[in-house]
Design brief:
about 450 residues; 8-stranded mixed beta sheet
């Protein structure tokens, strides 16, 4: 959400920022300022009409006290005219306010000054790289490996749930569970994150707070108490359907909203929160992409990292969060690179984003496995999440950050493909041995 006063004070900044996001910045800013002007004009006219009505009402009493019925009658007629003016200006202000609010709610965050220009992933900037891709002769993809072991079943999942689901069995299911537990232990025991077990179903206002609604409703799964209710609720009417719940697309939604409508002491910041949860995504915008395997699923597990900070802390906290996510890949000895996203490739709520990309041998390329974003005060404004310094009267919006530490399914894919041998077995990384006692390989002991 954006501060209209900031746009009013520096429209050129926002115009350039939205141009960098691939939007028509000049048109958007002009529309915002026009609606803002209409709203302020209506408010000014309303205040003037109210003052004139109050003055006229006062004079009516004076005229009646002086038994000047003609003047009192004239003044009462004028008050009736002002009543019409008040109604008209109230409606004009309400309409302009609703249009302005809807416009601002659908606009993405503006990039930080050090975010590189660019339109898509081809313009992202590599920051660092660790590890050399493993030399694997005739590397098989994870689906072929899993199915050959009899431990990965996409057909059974499709019979139950449709496409973009998978059934993991036996040692592979244990490996996925071990990965999630390893990540959670690392983030809590060594990096100081507080483990949280949050709700998996949330209200519409919660999804709005972190930016999933209203713009990305088609990418979400909604849960209704009954089919008739589902048919009755249209986009934009979610607030009128309190029974509606959304399946979280990431624990970022639940964790960040813990400070929703709260005033947090700045002395307690930063808050560092983590959760291992299932995540649910409709992937409406990904039709035809990654239809094979586990890269893009409707349901997957992820360890999420969230930080709530004072404004001065967020840039440093962002770099720290990226390091916490990188630590998982380092411990698993997986080749990866860290990318600074360009303005056009960042997410809706992000002010600055780093992506971690892990090496996938079967594709002979790096694939995203974590995205760590500093959202500034963008989400805080949508949630009304504020901070207050001890001894001071005023409050200010907090800064929110989120990142994957990591996506468990994609990490499983990376481990399977990078640790495969020519016989189709999968070696278990040393960091996971404490979580899988007695096991050194998936698909037979070495």
């Amino acid at each position: 959400m954006h501060d209209i006063r900031a746009i009013r004070d520096d429209p050129e900044l926002y115009q350039k920022a939205w141009d960098a996001k691939g939007l028509s910045g000049a048109r958007i800013v002009a529309q915002i300022l026009d609606l803002d002007g209409q709203l302020r004009a209506a408010q000014t006219a309303l205040q003037a009409a109210q003052a004139e009505r109050n003055e006229a009402s006062k004079k009516i009493g004076q005229a009646k006290a002086q038994k000047d019925e003609a003047e009192a009658t004239r003044l009462m007629a004028h008050v009736e005219t002002l009543k019409t003016t008040l109604e008209r200006q109230t409606e004009a202000g309400r309409e302009a306010d609703e249009l302005l609010k809807a416009l601002l709610e659908g606009l993405p965050n503006i990039p930080a000054p050090d975010v590189p220009a660019g339109r898509d992933e081809h313009d992202n900037v590599e920051v660092r790289r660790r590890g050399e891709p493993f030399a694997i002769k005739s590397a098989k993809d994870h689906q072929s490996l899993g199915e050959a072991l009899g431990l990965m079943d996409f057909e059974a999942a499709a019979r139950m749930s449709g496409s973009r689901f998978v059934v993991l069995k036996g040692e592979l299911a244990r490996l996925e569970r071990a990965l999630g537990q390893f990540m959670l232990d690392l983030q809590t025991r060594e990096h100081g994150y507080l483990e949280v077990a949050p709700p998996l179903m949330v209200r519409s206002e919660t999804m709005f707070g972190t930016g999933q609604l209203p713009k990305f409703s088609d990418d979400q799964f909604a849960a209704f108490p009954g089919l008739e209710t589902a048919r009755a609720v249209a986009p934009g009417e979610w607030a009128a359907a309190p029974e509606l719940r959304w399946m979280i697309p990431t624990a970022e939604v639940s964790l960040t909203n813990l400070v929703r409508e709260q005033i947090t002491p700045e002395e307690d910041m930063p808050f560092r929160l983590t959760a291992l949860t299932p995540c649910f995504r409709a992937e409406a915008g990904a039709s035809g992409k990654d239809t094979r395997g586990m890269i893009r699923q409707h349901q997957f597990n992820k360890v999420e990292l969230v930080s709530i900070t004072a404004p001065e802390q967020s840039a440093e906290e962002h770099e720290r969060m990226v390091g916490c996510a990188e630590a998982v890949l380092k411990r698993l000895d997986l080749p990866f690179r860290t990318m600074l996203l360009c303005a056009g490739d960042m997410g809706f709520s992000a002010r600055k984003t780093y992506d971690l990309e892990v090496w996938i041998p079967s594709e002979d390329r790096y694939r995203e496995i974590s995205s760590c974003s500093n959202c500034g005060d963008f989400q805080a404004r949508r949630m009304d999440a504020r901070a207050k310094k001890s001894g001071e009267k005023g409050t200010r919006f907090v800064h929110t950050l989120n990142g994957s530490g990591l996506a468990v399914g994609r990490t499983l894919v990376a481990v399977m493909e990078n640790y495969q041998d020519e016989g189709g077995r999968i070696a278990i990384p040393q960091a996971l041995h404490p979580y899988l006692p007695g096991m050194t390989h998936i698909g037979g002991q070495g």
